[in-house]
Amino acid sequence: MIARLWGTVLESGPESVIIRAGSVGYRVLLSPYSLALLSASQGPVSLRTFLLWSEHQESPLLVGFVDAAEEELFHEIRRIGGLGATKAIRMISLAPQEIWQFIAAGDVARLKKLKGVGETTARKLVSELRDRLPATLLLFVPPRAMTSPAGDPAGEAFRKPAGIADSVLDTLTRQFGHSPAEAEKMIRRALSRNPAVKSVEELFDEVYRHGVD
Fold it and tell me: What CATH superfamily classification does 1-66 receive?
């Protein structure tokens, strides 16, 4: 299983790149979002990867992601009936955080602007994924957007620092020994009790205020 690739981009295409890692060139299927980021970078690149096997393909397909957030969104989308891996990777034409915001807000109009997404698929994304918003992204979603399809995605919650929940999650798993699932659950509970936290310290205090069960 190829989980990570480090190397340099030899060739770029409309949907994939060839990355030289050592003496081997790997063709990697990328989302429009990742392709845009890689085209703007110079020097060595690092990608998370997923090896996709399918009876409809002549050979395995290596899918790449620039970060964990993109990989998580990809897997969530591909599990939805009728979509699959190829459609999922093509849909990610914006930052994962933005796509999750649209899903949480039930913003079908903005979701339809993603590549290959029409009315039916947009509504399916909302219905299937709205209750599975990652804990690391809860800080960016106003409470009204998570309860009302017509919620306005603009607001103070979207302007909070991007790394707060990520930093807490990383520390809970690396330094305090919690599993990723347990740490995410703790953060979800803390944010549900106090969605107004504005710093890493405040979120840590809220996580441990009621103890760990």
Answer: Nucleic acid-binding proteins (2.40.50.140)
Q: Does domain 68-134 have CATH number 3.40.50.2300?
A: no
Backbone angles phi, psi at 66, to 5 degrees: -80, -20
**Alpha-carbon torsion angle 82, 87, 89, 95, nearest 10:** -90
139: left (phi over 0), alpha (psi -120 to 50) or beta: alpha
The 10s digit of each residue's pLDDT in 88-145 is 999 999 988 889 989 988 999 999 999 999 999 999 999 999 888 776 555 545 444 4
Q: Domain coordinates of the chain in residue numbers?
A: 1-66, 68-134, 135-209
Query: Which positions ≥6 away from 48 have C-beta within 8 Å?
Result: 3, 4, 64, 65, 66, 67, 68, 70, 71
pTM over 0.70: no
pLDDT digits (tens, 9 = 90+) for 135-146: 655 554 544 444
User: How far is C-alpha 38 from the geometric centre of its chain's CA atoms?
Assistant: 17
Burial class (CB in 10 A: 0-12, 13-18, 19+), 115: middle
